[in-house]
Sequence to fold (216 residues):
Amino acid sequence: MPIIAPSLLSADFLHLKEAGDLINRSEAAWLHLDVMDGRFVPNISFGLPVIAAMRKATNKVCDVHLMIEEPEKYAQAFKDAGADILTVHAEACQHLHRNLQQIRSLGMKSGVALNPHTPISSIEEVLDEADLVCIMTVNPGFGGQKFIYSMLKKIEKLKESILKQGTNTMIEVDGGVTLENASAIVKAGADVLVAGNTVFNAKDPELTIRLLKNMV
Ligand code: DX5
Ligand code: ZN
Fold:
């Protein structure tokens, strides 16, 4: 069964406490928090104060996805705000190996995200340093986009690489996850499903989380 990580980006920002309560009641084990800087991606979302507030609102794993340039400058600050997992983009890191080590040394799980065009080969040498690889299945920056189906092969390829190297790296899939495609994504090898629009715009978000979790 996959871990479900609802993405706060699609929540009602006027009612973040309710979003936290919903996650707490639900079978989601993680809360996915998207930080955008308007430079790495063409959008600005939220930052440290919102993460710190959500940290108080939930005991679930805070899975922070940094879509920002120079993420190494802020790793300590996100640790202090309450991040359990900190994911940086391979494309935003000049020294990815060092950045992943930095995240672990601060006491967080390390994650690396790949844009749709970035090949698995760009991170094969650092798999050992990554607790999680996030395969972007949309171009990052916005919620509610369409899943890019050619990414299913990429997920399979990453799974093979992890098995071959024998690391404990988890595969997270982020972007356009729906009740319709979740099963194929899990079959391809995903351990964690991020879902923004599918959860927060559902009639019954808790039920939707349960259905996503029971995908085989
Ligand atoms: C996109 C973000 C995603 C986004 C997913 O740049 O990284 O986490 O919130 O939203 P949906 O599930 O609506 O595609
Ligand atoms: Zn994300």
Notes: The two ends are 7 Å apart (CA to CA).
